[in-house]
């Protein structure tokens, strides 16, 4: 059965992972994110109880 022969597919898989690891990944990691987090102070939540008119 030719599907169980790993010889051609192992080389293709290793080559694709090598290309991804050495070429594509450094290019993607060098990009700067467009939405950088800011150092805004956190807002305090309003914790006043709500008074329902029917209770």
Automatic annotation (TrEMBL):
Region ranges (Disordered): 34-55
Keywords carried by this UniProt record: ATP synthesis, CF(0), Hydrogen ion transport, Ion transport, Membrane, Mitochondrion, Transmembrane, Transmembrane helix, Transport
GO molecular function: proton transmembrane transporter activity
Broad class of the protein's primary localization: mitochondrion
Composition skew (Polar residues), residue ranges: 34-47
This protein's GO CC annotations: mitochondrial membrane; proton-transporting ATP synthase complex
InterPro entries reported for this sequence: ATP8_metazoa, ATPase_protein_8
Domain of life: Eukaryota
Pfam families per record: ATP-synt_8
GO biological process, one term: proton motive force-driven ATP synthesis
Record localization: Mitochondrion membrane
Transmembrane annotation, as ranges: 6-24
Topology versus the membrane: Single-pass membrane protein
Family: Belongs to the ATPase protein 8 family.
PANTHER family associated with the record: ATP SYNTHASE PROTEIN 8
Protein name: ATP synthase complex subunit 8
Organism, scientific name: Circaetus pectoralis (black-chested snake-eagle)
Gene, per the UniProt record: ATP8
